[in-house]
Amino acid sequence: MNSNTISARFLGQSCVEFDFNGTRVLLDPFISFNPLAKDVDMQSLRPSYIFLSHGHLDHIADMAEIQKNSGATVAAIVETAAWVREQGVPEEKVLEFNFGGTLNLPFGKVKMVYALHTNSRPDGQYGGVPCGFVFFVGDKKIYFAGDTALTLEMKLLEDLQLDWAFLPIGGHYTMDMYDAVKASKLINCKQIIGIHYDTFPPISIDKDEARQVFSEEGLTLHLPAIGDTVAL
């Protein structure tokens, strides 16, 4: 597989659209309710897969519409996957799995990993435990942390030799930029893309400060504008 065609387009909050050698994979779709993503054309999104890290509204709000438009397969932890089915997504288009599980998909492998956060479905019911994902695509290894606080569980990823990591940096609901630096060291990854910041006042950050905090520790923090694409 040619890893040179792997990229990620940032769509605001924690929503990322990966291009894995021509296969579109969408993470945590939250666009129509995000005022910062008003220029993103949600109707044009045609992912083959949608991954949900957990069931909070700012991660799943546009799942049903995008899935209906695209026919995407939706992957999530068991209890969140049950909610996905209730939204009318056909059974054959739902992939439920759990911690320790790895999906073998046409574009590569995806392993579910731990995240320290809370979770519920939009209807208030139990949504299972939040999670993150590690994508193995060609020779690239990419960690999407989802919503998480700093946790020692991250050290279990140290020996994977991750190429990229998508880490929340906004604080308040997740770890902040300082804890994200510690997380980067635990997972042994120097190329970080920030997520879960600036969407709401409690998670607004000083971008220059964030870049400096990472740079001082020998790390590179990428903060692409909404709609921008980063080659991975």
UniProtKB/TrEMBL annotation:
Q: Which residues form the Metallo-beta-lactamase domain?
A: 12-196
Q: What is this protein called?
A: Metallo-beta-lactamase domain-containing protein
Gene3D superfamilies from the entry?
Ribonuclease Z/Hydroxyacylglutathione hydrolase-like
Q: Which CDD domains does its entry note?
A: metallo-hydrolase-like_MBL-fold
User: Can you tell which superkingdom this protein's organism belongs to?
Assistant: Bacteria
Looking at the Swiss-Prot or TrEMBL record, what is one Pfam family this protein matches? Lactamase_B_2
Instruction: Supply the InterPro entries for this chain.
Output: Metallo-B-lactamas (IPR001279), RibonucZ/Hydroxyglut_hydro (IPR036866), UPF0173_UPF0282_UlaG_hydrolase (IPR050114)
Q: To which species is this protein native? A: Sphingobacterium paucimobilis HER1398
The family database entries (PANTHER family) matched by this protein are listed as: UPF0173 METAL-DEPENDENT HYDROLASE MJ1163 (PTHR43546:SF3), UPF0173 METAL-DEPENDENT HYDROLASE MJ1163-RELATED (PTHR43546)
SMART domains hit by this protein:
Lactamase_B (SM00849)
